[in-house]
């Protein structure tokens, strides 16, 4: 929508507020100030012309406020999506590297346990040999 229509809509929209009446419904001409039952029946329903003006105002607001920023919002959303995918890929790469390193460490621990077990056996044999030599010398 172009600017003159927007200004015209504001002028037309503000005119009902200049009319007589103490409540918003009366100002818009939706209820008869003297008829309370009509006020209850009408509730907050507006006459079609006022509803049309409100719809026009909303359309103008959407066109002038939201739509111009829509492409930048979409661009930022795509950048955020791309960033999240990159982070996810980095996390997966780090996880794979950590799993490989954990496998290497498990191999080292297994090797170390084997060496400790062999050392225990060797020390046990050496100790028994020393005991046997001491018994033979005595």
Query: Number of folding domains?
Result: 1
Which regions contain 5 or more consecutive residues with pLDDT less than 50?
A: 1-20
Output the structural class.
mainly alpha
Q: Tell me the strand percentage band.
A: under 5%
Global outline: rod-shaped
Mean pLDDT: 75
Number of helical regions = 4
Description of the structure:
The chain has 138 residues and is mostly helical. The protein has one domain. Helices cover 82% and strands 0% of the residues. It is built from 4 helices and no strands. Helix 1 packs across helix 4 (48-137). The chain is rod-shaped and about 125 Å long. It starts with a helix and ends with a helix. The model is unreliable at 1-20 (pLDDT under 50).
Task: Please give a quick description of this structure.
Helices cover 82% and strands 0% of the residues.
Please specify the SSE layout and strand pairing.
Blueprint: H1 3-14, H2 24-27, H3 36-42, H4 48-137
Search tags:
single chain, 138 residues, disordered N terminus
